[in-house]
Each structure stands twice: as structure tokens, then as C-alpha cells.
Amino acid sequence: MSYGTVKEVGNFYVIECKPLPAILTAIKGLPMREWRYTQKHWTVPRQYREEVERFAKRHKLDFGDTYVPESDQVFTIDPLPELKIDIPIKRPLFPFQAQGIAYSIEKKRLIIGDDMGMGKTTQAIVTIAGLDHTGVESLPCLIICPSSVKINWEREVKMNTYLKPLILSDSIKNTFMEYYRVGVANVFIVNYESLKKYFVDHIEDPGPGKQLRLNHIHFKEKYVNFFKAVIVDESHRVKALKTKNTKYTKGICTGKEVILLLTGTPVINKPKDLISQLGIANRLSDFGGYKEFERRYCAGPKEASNLAELNYMLNKHCFYRRNKRDPNIQLQLPDKMRQVVICELSPKARHEYAHAVSDLESYMKQYKEASDEQIKKSMKGEVMVRIGILKNISARGKLADVFDFVQDVVDSGEKIVLFAVLKDIVNEVLARFPKAVKVTGDENDAQKQAAVDKFQTDPNTQILIGNLKAAGVGITLTASSKVAFIEQGWHAAIMDQAEDRCFRIGAKNNVMCTYFIGKDTIDEWNYNLIQSKRDMSNQVTGNEDDIEVNIIDSVMNLFNQKYA
Fold first, then answer.
1. Which of 3.40.50.450, 3.20.20.100, 3.40.50.10810, 3.40.50.150 would CATH assign to domain 99-323?
2. Which residues are within 8 A (CB) of 199 and not within 5 positions of it... i.e. 6 or more apart?
3. What digits encode the pLDDT tens for the residues 145-178?
4. At what angle do helices 150-160 and 120-133 cross, to 10 degrees?
5. Which of 104, 136, 292, 338 could form a disulfide with 288 if both were Cys (CB 3.0 to 4.6 A apart)?
6. Considering the entire predicted model, what is its pTM?
């Protein structure tokens, strides 16, 4: 039940409500309220939005149902420009990526909003390289990103360009600028949680009950001014105006000529989410400023108005987004793409892993020194158990990064299929994402099919977690084009079969396969082993004994190389 409405008209909020005693008493507590006798309503200046919004919510008045005339103009968005400069890079670009880079070089301060899996990272990095190549000051560059992808940004910079990346750490907190001066690094990578540590000198106390504002934060100007360009990855994380990370990011970006924000989360239908990001990119003036943007594009009961015009203005000034389902994009992408996400293990897992490695090393020495083939054969099973322990520790130690990644996929409105080996890993995922469905050896055929059907047909079921044996073959999961592996099998065939659960035979749909690899763990060796098998025409598809012998021999070779 609604007791009235609050509408925004010009510079005022207009309150029309039932004359209930409680509501009338509350209205008299609003700042600078005024009763308009002829119109039979109250008015409060727009600057008191928070007070009016709280009043409306408390007393069940519809808030924000503002009349904003929708434009009847037909808007035509120009195609992205072609890239006409030769940027020195290490890997070829897809044509659509080259167009995005051309637009980014032209605009310099913008939001790159391409769908997940289309290479926003590549486009951002090559844009920085391209600007530098054409004489625009873009180095040194700072990359602000989630902690889980710092290593991957470092790898992508090295793989795509001749730029020199460096992840900021406590050991170089006060000396990182010297790495640039001596030519060792020109791209620096930091996670959101560390912005205060590296770039904030001190924060003033705003006072009791007062909100922290940007001018209360005093930055280390020497470090902030050092950077000529900033890349803000997963920029939807700083869409809330009041958070400290948003304020830190805004302060670091202020005054920069080159600011690239990356987000795969759809933003066009959430105009308020854009305000902070446009502010960080210093682009709100292109929309008439904060108040005009809010008035023009955030009105009505859904706080969304003139969306076609907003989409046009965004694309005109500082934004582009392409979708993988676009037939033109699909023609450019391969049927299947793979990406590796390197994960730092948690401190506890690193300690456990080091202990398990030491234990395996000791046992491998015994295995190597055994002269009797029968003894060696009996020891192989124990070697496999100890290798499995390493894989288990790595899987548990990287779950925080996995959850971070999956949450971004869910937030973007997409679906994802996750594969694991161990039941406790599957259960950890279910505990973190209770709306997920699972396909493991514990379910009967009917339960498995119910889980698959729910994933395929229910838009609110965005995650399916399964183990490789139960879910890796024989089922269709084409509701998603994203497959991710928390744990890996031992040979290419089973991994390829699992990847293909999301592949539509005869369709051009592009499946993105993500492998979560524990840094400096057996995962890296395991992944390389699988890749080598993919490159061989005779993939290992034999019985378990053959596979086990192959693994034992490979581990022994790894051990011999490391300790020869």
C-alpha cells in the first residue's frame, strides 16, 4: 500500500500524500519544507535527497516517480573506427579488438565494456602501448585490479606487448619508482585492497555522523602523480560512490589524461552504476555533470530514463560494448578458447603445500633408489596418493580466487560450468553459491538430469558444479559458453570432453575454457602435461595403469631435473 508519492520537479521534491498524523509530523521535520496551498502539496529542495528518500521509505510513499520527457529522437551509433597505426605487439589481434583499440586511443578516457572473454585486457594493454608509440604520455601506467588477477595481468602484458610489468609488493612499497627510472618496469599492478597502503598518506576524521568525502583523503602526491595512465579492471567494483575504494580510485585517476575502465557487467540499464565510473574517467561533464546525468537518466520509479539517448551519448563520448553472440564477432572468434588464471595459494595452503612437497621429495628418493622392480611397482600407488595430496592442497588454496572469478560471471548475468575432482571441493563451491546445482557420482540418473535441466532452462540457476567423471561426459550444458576447471584430470581427452559439454555441434558459439592454476604448484606441470598431450596425435586414452606409469615417469623426470 502506498500513502502518496514523492516526485522530482525542477529543483524540488514534490510530496503528495494522505493527511495522516504520523506523516504530517514527519514532514515538519524535513529541512526547508514548504506547503504550496494552491497545489496542495509540500516541496523540499533537491539538495536534501537523502532526508526525503528516508522519509518516503519510512512512511510508504512512492519515491522518485519523476516525469522526465523521453526523447523521441532516433539515435544512430557510429561504428568503431579502424586501427590505422602499426603498434609493436607480440600477438595478432582480432579485427574487433583492433577497432576497440582504435576507439580507445581516440577517446583516451573511457569504459571498455565488452562481453567477458573478448579480450578487454588485451585491448587495454595494447591501447597503452599504442598511445606510447604515437607519443602520448601513457607510461608509467598503473593497473588497479582484483587481487586474484594480478599475476594474470602481469602475464598478459608480457605476452601481448613489449611493456615491462611489475606487481607492487611491500618490499618495494617506497622504491617502485626506481624500477621505472632504471628501465626495469613501466607498468605497475596493484589490487584494490592495497590502494590505501601504497597511495594514501592519511585520512582526516570527517566528524561524528558525517560522511567521508574525497577531500578528507590525503594522497601521497609523489606516487600518485608518478603515473601518466591508469587502467581500472572490473570497474563495476567501484560503482558505489560512498566506498573507500571508489574514493581511492577516483583520487588516483584525477588529472590523468589516459584512464581505461574495464567491466564485462552490463551497465546500460543501470544508469546510477555509471555515475561513479564516469566520474573516475572524468567524463560526467559530457553528460552535463552529475546532477544533470541523474535528472536526465536516473528518473522514474526504476531510476532509469532516456536509455536510448544514454546509450548513444555513452558510445559517442566514452564507451563501447560488443557481445560474443553478435554474428560478426562469432565469425572472428575460434570455436574454443583457453585462458589460464594463475592463483596465489592462501598462506595456510602454502605452508601445507611446502610440507607435502618435502614429504613427496623424501619418498621419491626412496623410489629412485629402489633397485627391485617389484618394490618400485608397489611404491607407485603411494606416489600417486602423495601427488593427489599436492593437487588437493592447491585446489583448496586457490578457492578464494575461484570464487572471485565466478562472482564476476554471476554479476554479469551469465552462466558457468565448473569442474572439480574431489567431493569436498564441490561442496565448498555449493556452500559459497547455494543456488548452484551439482552433477557428481552421488546423484542417481534422475537427479543428474534434473540438475542439468534446471541449469539449461532456469535463468536464475547460473552455476553448475560437477566432477570430471560424472559431468565431463554424456551431458549437454549449452546454456553456458563458459567452462572452468578448479582441478584437472591427467590427460587431454577427458579435459577436452569436459570442455565440449558447452559446445553446440554445428554452431558458432565460442566456448571460453578457464583453467585455475595454483602458482608454483603441481597444477602448472599438470597443465603443461595436458597441453603436450593435446599436441600429440596419439592422446593418452589407454587404461589407468598406462596413465599411472606415464605420470610416475613424468614426475620422476620433473624430480630429476629439479634436483640433478
1. 3.40.50.10810
2. 219, 220, 223, 224, 248, 251, 252
3. 998 889 989 999 999 999 999 999 999 999 999 9
4. 50
5. 292
6. 0.78
